[in-house]
Amino acid sequence: MRWSFPAMHTLLVTSAGLAVLLVFAFIAQRRQRQAPGSGADAMRAFIWVWLIASLANLLMGVFVAGVSFTVELGVFVIVFGVPAAIAWLMGRKAKAQAAGSS
Predict the structure, then answer these.
(1) Which of 1, 42, 59, 96 has the most CB atoms within 10 Å of its CB?
(2) Cα separation, 44 vs 38, whole angstroms
(3) CA 41 to CA 26: how far, in whole Å?
(4) pLDDT tens across 50-84, in order?
């Protein structure tokens, strides 16, 4: 199977998002000891940070690489959506755990 550059770029940027999510999750786990419920806050912060990074990726694709907006919009859905959905689920789990320990 041969990968095309746009597919590989999407995979790399999505993987970078998951790596950044792991960093946020690690920091949240460390802070959880001092401030229960901070895990949900960290996931919420990640979603905002990743939204900005994903929008920057979209704009770079349209204005620098010359990719059409509709193609970049489809890539944006994957690049933003996958890490953000996982962060949202992790935030719900952290919030439920914080509510259970209170």
Answers:
(1) 42
(2) 10
(3) 13
(4) 999 999 999 999 999 999 999 999 999 999 999 99
Summarize pLDDT for 15-33 with one digit per residue, the tens. Answer: 999 999 999 999 988 887 7
Only one residue has tokens 């990640």, namely 46
Three-state DSSP class for residue 59: helix
Helix (H/G/I), strand (E/B), else coil: 3 = coil
Where are the domains positioned within the chain? Answer: 37-102
d(CA 102, CA 86): 25
Backbone angles phi, psi at 37, to 5 degrees: 95, -5
Report the alpha-carbon distance of residue 82 to residue 85 in Å, rounded. Answer: 5
19: left (phi over 0), alpha (psi -120 to 50) or beta: alpha
